[in-house]
Amino acid sequence: MSVNSEIQTPRSARIAPEYTRNKGRKGNFEMYAWLFMRLSGLILVVLVFGHLFVNLMLGDGVHAINFGFVAGKWADPFWQVWDLAMLWLAMLHGTNGVRTIIEDYAEKDSTRFWFKMVLYVASAVIIVLGTLVIFTFDPCPANASAELLPSFCPAP
């Protein structure tokens, strides 16, 4: 048996396809996106479990969650910032994850572009609307009829 220092050509030409998509364009973006996923995931665990503990374990638990509970909670700037951080991190974390899936599975550049545009627009709309709800929520709106107001609102 002779020793041949040459590697034989594989029978299948598709043994190692060359990956050329987005070659050299991204720089360190993917590394920062990867790092963001890990850090935001850790922070989200703290935010979500804190949210669940306050809402479900303190007081009367799930039976106490109603309009008044949310109104009282969002009257405190601490809980507004807490819920805002949870909203923003969850949306950005999820958007980055879906972006990665699109990058992996969409083969055509145009398909990838449009999927990501729909993703980014949907994420931006949800972040903007959620932020507006958190900071403009008023349980006792002016000029509302008394029968529509919750019991804790002063009579108009």
Automatic annotation (TrEMBL):
UniProt entry keywords in alphabetical sequence: Heme, Iron, Membrane, Metal-binding, Transmembrane, Transmembrane helix
Presence of keyword Ion transport: no
CDD domains, per the entry: SQR_TypeA_SdhD_like (cd03500)
Bilayer-crossing regions: 31-58, 78-96, 117-137
Keyword check for tRNA processing: no
InterPro entries attached to this UniProt entry: SQR/QFR_C/D, SuccDH_FuR_B_TM-su
Pfam families listed in its UniProt record: Sdh_cyt
Entry's localization field: Membrane
Name of the protein in question: Succinate dehydrogenase hydrophobic membrane anchor subunit
Organism listed in the record: Arthrobacter sulfonylureivorans
